[in-house]
Specification:
alpha+beta; four-stranded antiparallel β-sheet; globular
């Protein structure tokens, strides 16, 4: 019985960690959406709220707003944040 428990413990731990990955990723996505909403608003562009975002690279996102606008938000070579309407 003890050897069975020892064999199953790593599998149970892996399953537990896999179950936590979904909520953690969702929380991270919500934070990114809020940040992108703020950036777009600070740049004076119409958006409302970012509904979804796709990461295209480091500091490069394609944001889709609730009002239907889409923006590529990225950091340019000079280190400035830019939002281009797509």
């Amino acid at each position: 019985m003890r050897t069975t428990m020892k064999r199953l413990a790593p599998i149970a731990l892996a399953a537990l960690l896999a179950g936590l990955a979904g909520p953690l990723a969702a929380a991270e996505n919500n934070a990114v959406n809020k940040d992108l909403t703020s950036v777009i608003a600070l740049l004076g562009l119409p958006c409302g709220q970012v509904a979804s975002a796709q990461r295209r690279g480091e500091n490069d996102y394609l944001a889709t707003c609730t009002d239907g606008n889409r923006y590529r938000v990225y950091t340019n070579a000079q280190g400035r944040v830019v939002a281009e309407k797509q």
